[in-house]
Input
Amino acid sequence: MSDALEKAEAAVREASTDTAAVQLAFAAMELAKLAQQQPAAHSQTCSHQPKQGRSTGEWLAIGCAVCVGSVGIAIGFIAFAIGGISVAILALVLRSMWRDFQKGRG
Output
């Protein structure tokens, strides 16, 4: 019986000193150790290459696309202006016809 009692007392002592907070502290210390070791190893094995800029062909293609788009927008605005002028002329003609019609009746 005393052997079982001694084992129980040892288990109680171990449980009281090995709480969850102590376990978390040990885990945090291990994590900090790994974090200190990892950047040194990472900097030696890093094979990062800087991104290269656009080539001349890409810049020419972008320039051509902008020019074609600008011409298309300009043609669209010209068509809009011609439509507006046509509507204005139509309104003037209809107004003139309406006045002539009113004079003939009245």
